[in-house]
Design goal:
By secondary structure, this protein is mainly alpha-helical. It is built from 14 helices and no strands. The radius of gyration is 26 Å and the shape is elongated. It starts with a helix and ends with a helix. 35% of the residues are buried.
């Protein structure tokens, strides 16, 4: 029995280590690569197909016939089944949407810091260069329209340069400053048109409206000043609030499939760790590990199938998380410690999930609740992240969309093969 237990635990650890190592590999790869848009979208749709196959072939049967999976002697009463399914669905929905909100609030916390506001005001001209490999590819027709608009923007920039040269000859400080800011706006507008950024999300708009009221108070405060020192402080407060609003126009929330750009050598980093983001990613990894351990309890084929299905997802999560940490701090020890935490938690919670599954053999209704939780968590990942992000990157590309069905087919074959191999 001891030998069997040791073999079982070793197998479980191997299953949990597959996505953990994939996440570590993604974390290391951030120093050298950013994934091209179409390859990223194809990987997303392929992963979604494998996960749907795992849900249909491995998890749903456990939900429908729990007594067969845990060896229960009696059929679970229907009322308990309905309560368990509802509870699992509710808890999973609250957790997954909560994690999404937590990751978004982490980015908001980052944007609220004065160090980030200052770095945004210095680096805003580099925010949307359109040169990154993660920028969404444009169809030929749309690219033609963008380039046509770009030529018009170039004419505006050339006109601004002519005005600036004239003001430099005149030597008026006020005119030079005014024209420089106008040309800077034209540059920002041109870069946004080339990069085709996403529209402002509701959270950003709400924060900008809040800061708009703050800016109004700052403006009212300007008229109340009676000393030069007070006026300087009031103008500085007004300027910081205005820069903060400008920063929100360039701000994008964390997404596991959209790694942040690599910071330049000159960029000033806040060196402040966004702990809500770290907690969200660690919780995400822990949930995935728990699901693998829970599936392993039912059968080894289920556990291995879940392990393979989540490996691609965790690899990209590691890439995105490491890229975000890279934009927080230049400290290598901090970076290493932070990116190692989620894979370690994934492995540990895989063991916890297996132990919990063993205990659930005495309570099939509770087992149903956990399986219901797992199904919602994976469906959230497929519908709210994988397919949604792939659509943003590739649009209606048939080559990318067909990868979903290839992933589904691979998942079906994988399930059959593992059932034959592992039983």
């Amino acid at each position: 029995k001891i030998f069997v237990l040791q073999t079982t635990m070793l197998t479980l650890l191997l299953f949990a280590l597959v996505p953990a190592l994939a996440m570590l590999l993604g974390s290391v790869a951030v120093f050298w690569v950013r994934v091209p848009g179409k390859l990223q979208a194809a990987t997303q749709t392929f992963s979604a197909g494998i996960l749907i196959s795992a849900i249909a072939g491995e998890l749903y049967p456990l939900l429908s016939f729990p007594q067969n999976s845990v060896g229960a002697a009696e059929v679970v009463p229907e009322c308990q089944v309905y309560v368990a399914i509802s509870a699992g669905f509710t808890v999973s929905l609250v957790l997954m949407f909560g994690l999404e909100h937590l990751a978004g609030s982490a980015e908001e916390e980052e944007a609220e810091s004065k160090a980030v506001v200052r770095s945004l005001s210095k680096a805003v001209a580099r925010s949307f260069t359109g040169e990154s490999l993660e920028a969404p590819p444009l169809p030929d027709a749309e690219a033609g329209k963008v380039l046509e608009a770009f030529r018009e923007e170039v004419a505006e920039l050339q006109h601004g340069v002519g005005r600036l040269q004239a003001s430099l000859l005149a030597g008026s400080c006020e005119d030079i400053d005014k024209i420089v800011h106008e040309v800077s706006y034209d540059v920002d507008r041109t870069k946004r048109h080339l990069a085709q950024p996403e529209p402002l999300d509701e959270a950003n708009l709400a924060r900008m409206q809040f800061h708009g009221e703050e800016l109004r108070d700052n403006a009212d405060n300007l008229g109340l000043q009676t000393s030069v020192a007070g006026a300087r402080r009031a103008v500085r407060a007004f300027e910081l609030t205005l820069q903060h609003i400008h920063g929100h126009t360039e701000h994008q929330k964390f997404r596991r499939w959209a790694p942040a750009r690599m910071p330049t050598v000159q960029a000033i980093l806040s060196e402040k760790i966004s702990w809500p983001l770290v907690c969200a990613v660690c919780t995400d990894a822990a949930v995935d590990g728990f699901l693998i351990g829970l599936a392993f309890t039912a059968s080894r084929s289920s556990g291995l199938c879940m392990s393979i299905a989540t490996s691609l997802e965790m690899g990209f999560l590691g890439l995105s998380f490491s890229a975000s940490v890279q934009n927080m701090t230049r400290s290598v020890p901090k970076h290493v410690c932070l990116v190692v935490m989620p894979p370690v938690l994934l492995t540990l919670f895989g063991v916890c999930g297996h132990a919990s599954g063993k205990l659930l053999k005495a309570n099939p209704a509770l087992f149903i609740g956990f399986i219901s939780f797992a199904i919602v968590a994976l469906l959230f990942l497929v519908t709210q992240e994988l397919l949604a992000e792939a659509r943003k990157l590739a649009g209606d590309s048939k080559c990318v969309n067909v990868m979903f069905f290839i992933g589904l087919l691979v998942g079906i074959f994988l399930e059959k093969f593992l059932q034959t191999l592992l039983g």
